[in-house]
Every structure is written in C-alpha cells, then in structure tokens.
Batch of 2 targets.
Target 1
Amino acid sequence: MEKIFIDLSSIDSTNKEYYQKDITNTHFYGFPIEPIISAEQRLKDKSIPSIAYFSMEYGLAPSVYHTFESQNEIDESNVSQSSEVFSNLKQMDYFHTISMLRLLDLPIYSGGLGVLAGDTLKSSADLGISLVGIGILWHKGYFQQKFWFRGG
C-alpha cells in the first residue's frame, strides 16, 4: 500500500494525529497536494535541470495571498493582530491604513530584497522552472520593518 504523504515527512510521532487533520493524501493545509509532490519529484529528477536560488530573505507572505487552512484551532501566538498594508504612494499611506487579522509568516524577510526574491520564485513557478529557494530562518528572531516616509 502506498504511504500517505504525512508518513514521508519527519514529524514527531506524538503530534502525528494533530497533523493528520491538515495533511492528507489529497490536501496540505487546504492546498491540493499534487503540485507539492510533483515539484519535489522534478527537483529530485536528475534528468531535469534545477536551480537553487539563495537569498538572505524571501517575502512570500502566504498568510496574506494564499492562506493556509487548518482543521485545528490556531494558537493565539501565531496570529498577528495588527498588520498594515502600505503602498509606494506615501501621501495615501499617511491617510489610509488597512489592518488585517492574519497568520504570521516565517520571519525571513523585511523589505525590498525579500519581496524581489519572493517575486522571482513566483515568476519561476509560473514559467514551470524547477527551482528551490533557500533562505535563512533566524533563531534569535528577526524584525518587522515599518516605513515612515516623512523625513526620508
């Protein structure tokens, strides 16, 4: 019998039942699992050229654009209560703020270069390029940038 996806992952066996609600043979936190498995197979296939893209940070923000869904209750510490969306038009940002309740992203980006790296990954995926992004997850924490355009 074919192993289910969760059996192929290294998950602590004491938490396996918890994760089985969200990781099945067909879905991974609400997303179809087939593209995930297909991408991993392409990356491991020696006959397909693959690219590793190293960056200090990636601004992919899955919790804003394509939110993961969980059958389990989300711990309060994993939710950001006040997030601000801003644009490059500083005059509008001064008068308008959009706040949203959302899941926290992995804190491996803070600004422009991370957004550029994330866009590069998304564009590569759209083109069907076999690519993996490798970043750094800081053990001592990371910071969130807030831009204030007055005075530079």
Note: The helical segments are 5-8, 16-20, 34-44, 62-65, 90-95, 112-126.
Target 2
Amino acid sequence: MAGTRLASYFDAMGDRERAERARTLALQAEAFSEWAASGHEAPVDVEFRLMEVETALEALHCEAGTAEQRDYQTCFTPEGGWENYFRAHGL
C-alpha cells in the first residue's frame, strides 16, 4: 500500500510527523476501500472521504519527491491546485 511505503520512507528520513500522517491515511484508505468492496452502497460522504484520503496520499508522494511523482503535472500541490490533479488523472 502506498501509505505504508511512504511511512517507511519518511521514517528513514527522520520525519516522524509525515510518517505518522502516511500511516493514518493508509489505514483510512484501507477502511474506506473495504467498505466500497463489500458490495454495500457507501454513503456519499464515505466516497468523498476516500477521495480526500487518496488526494492527501498523492500530496505526500509529491512531498517525498518519489520518481513517479516528480513531474509537476502529476502532483497535487498548493501551487498547482486541483486543476493539475484533475488533468493528471484524466478528469
């Protein structure tokens, strides 16, 4: 899971705050994904929250500077805003 890998990366870098954030987001993403996969109709707020968690993980990838996320067009950044996020994901 991306959040777990990010947590390990930030732990190795000595950034405990971001590592804990990545772990928390990973747990949230897993819980929301399990709900969605259960076949039960998820309330709109759960689906929206999953999208928020995925966006936050994307932002952490950008902060980590991982190779796949270094391109400005694929990163959600405060400077780039939602426009770049949506463009990068074909939305």
Note: Residues 2-88 form one domain.
